Every structure is written in C-alpha cells, then in structure tokens.
Predict the 3D structure of the following.
Amino acid sequence: MTSHRHVSPILIAHSYYLRYDDKQWRKMKPYPPLATLLVASAVRNAGYPVVLFDAMLASGVEDFYDCLKRTQPRFTLIVEDNFNFLTKMCTTRMRGAAIDMIRAAKELGSKVLVNGSDASDNEQLYLDGGADVIVLGEAENTILDLLTAWTEHQDRTLHHIPGLALHHDGNGAAASGVYRTAPRAFMKDLDALAFPAWNLVDVEHYRRVWNDAHGRLSWNLVTSRGCPYKCNWCAKPIFGTRYAQRSPADVAEEMRRLREEVAPDHLWFADDIFGLTAQWIEAFAAEVRARNARIPFMMQSRANLMKPQVVAALAEAGAEEVWLGTESGSQKILDAMDKGTTIDQIRTATRNLKASGIRTCWFIQLGYPGEEWEDIILTREIIRAERPDDIGVSVSYPLPGTKFFELVKEQLGHKTHWQDSDDLAMMFRGTYQTSFYRAIRSLLHDETDAGANPAPKIQRRLEARWIELERIEPEQRSATLSTASA
C-alpha cells in the first residue's frame, strides 16, 4: 500500500440529507451511505487519509460547510449512495444540496469529483455547478486512478482514465460541452472489495435514532450490483443490467463482522434483487449457519423467484420481511411495463412467504400509461385477496435512460423532479390528475392496514370511499383538464 501521508485529508461526502425529506424524516429509518463507505474504504486502503461527511443525519448543508473549514481538503469526493433507491429519483432538494456542496468546496480551492445517478444523467449541470469531474458507473477503481493522477500533478492524463465526464476542452468532445472518456468495464470480482468503512460513521448516533423510533438498530449491506431484468421504467445508470454477485461466504463473513463491530439488531439488504438463484440463497443460508451470523433481515425480490425451496432457505438465513415489486393487479399493466411476472406468480409468492412466517410487502405503482379505473380496481382486489403485510405506493416516475421516459418525454413540463419523496405528483399526462392518485394511495394503504378480516364497520367505510372515488372518477381524468397534472 502506497503512503500518501503528505496529502491533506480527502473529504468524502454525499448529499442525501434526511431532514430535507419530510416523509423520510417522519419514517426515521436512516441508513449510512453504503456506496460512499465502500469508496472511503478503497481510498483509505490505498493509503490516503480520509475524512467522511455523512449528510444522512446532519442538520443541513451548513454542517458540510463547517466540515470543509475544519478539513481544508485538497480533494472533495461527493459520492452518492447508489444503493439508496431515493438517489435515483433525485428530488430537487437533494440536487440543490449537492450543487451547494460543490460550490462551497470550490470556493475553498478544493478539486471536486461527483459520482451518482443524477450527475450521470445531467453531467453538464454538475460540471457547470463547479465539479471538476463526473465519475460514471462504478466509482472505486475510477476514483483511485483519478486520485493518482491528481496527486502526481498529471491532470493532462485524465482523458486516458476510463469512466469520466469532463469539461469540454476542444479535443473531440460532443457539442454539449462534455467530454466522456472511454467506458470503464464493470467489476467482476466483488469479493475483492474491502468491507465498507463502518468506523468512519457515528454508529451510536444511528443507534440512538433507530432505538428511539423503532426500538432496534437496522444496518445496510449488499450482495450484488445490477439487475438483469428489463422493467422499462427502471433506470440503472450506475450498475447497469448485468448482475454481479458476491460469494455467499463473503456476505456471511460481512454479517459476522457487523455483529462484532456494529452490533445491529436487523439488516437491510439494499440489492435491487437479492439472491438470483436458489443455489446461491441455499449456499448463503449454509454459510450464515456455519458462522453463527444470523441476523433478522429485510430484502427485495421478484414474485417469480419466490419458489418454495428459496423461501425455506431465506427463512433459515433470517429473512424477516420480503418486498416484492408487485406494481399492479392488472396483467395488462404488468405486460406494458415489461415486468416479466404474472398475477398468479404474485399470489403464489405471497402465499409461500407467508406460510414460512415471512412478512410479505408489495411495491405498488399507479399511473402507468394505459392504466384505467378497472386496472386500479384489480389492484385493490388483489390486495384484498392476498393481504400483503405492508405496501409502498407511488406513481410512475420518468427516469432518464428508460424506455418509459422516452415514451412520455414529450409530455414532461417544467416539473421534472419531485420536491421530496412524498410529492407523488404526475410529471406526464397520466389518466388522472395528481390529487386523485393521492386519494387512491391513501385508500390502498387503508385497505392494507385493515388486515385479513376487517370489522364490518371498517369494510363499509372503505367501500363508501371507493364508491365516492368512482363517482368523481370521470371529472378527475387529466383529459378533462386544461393542462397536464402538476
């Protein structure tokens, strides 16, 4: 390992401030910035002194300004947690925070590097905001190459480093003013990465807020990068459509180390898809058992993968809760999304998980093009029939780089991002206006909260609300509005 002790500390930060999202602040389920900590670990292992600024529980960007003044970094790396799905959405408040952080660092004379979904989709915006370099795709190896060039004063060699977006310098750059170097190949051996730099995080701060809100500390980790499925609304700007997976033994060893060093009560596997095959999940359960590393966990998967042998292995390994991308109770809408799952698979997966004592939760998406009132009713009916333990409801959100975005981009108005994750505003001309979807969301949540055998009084109240929505449905259609919903 090369020593860089003569170099001033490298400040590594991210721009996800929980306080800037009222809905997430109320939920109070903060996780440390996993992708940021993986980069911090790689940079530190390369011999560079590292300081972390963790925005998650900070009061606001003012805390970052204070950190800048204390640290006086020569280099500032703003590396978003690319395993946090909310960073893909890039709410306007978080984007504003990122730009403010870039400008503040530049004012102190620091070189600034940015990596994240929004920066990858809007390179010019971030470069104009003051960033020297945008790192595209996976960050670890690209950042190490870049730091070597910067510390050795070889700025002119940056064009030979794959995986960068730079200011236009007249050497064959596109007319947009952004020069992109050659793409960097994806990592294949994820086991070669060091574990995240947990000791840079204020673990006890996380423990206090989690215990106060939920009575236990949850922590995050990942087993894979990417997703091989082709849902046409899902963006993959960082990890792509390939699926790289750590070995079951490496993941189980991280769980063992977490028990010793962090002592969480619960884990969240932040993978897009946890455990693609029965063989991997069964091997994972065996490795967890061999290390006595079992910790209750939550993960995300797909209905078509929840076969009985998979569910049994998940239960053995400690799965407490599984979130399925159900999206809709209408096969027509699932097919339009290129989801690749069926209503029967959703039903079977839910029943398999519940039979093993695993809480079964669904992501529901409203407002996809072509969804009509009868499709919404089908979603209601499958919720009533299968009774998921919890649901998360959103409206279709056009993310750059997706087939869905191309489908609706001509309809996008001035509102291209939500202010926060509770916004739920339609950004394209959907079937209904925003207020109607918000009413449906509330009602679907209440249907779920009513449980398997709601009291007759509750059933009557729910039914009356559905009747009222159906009565006003014709006048809520966006086709009757003078402008698209906003």
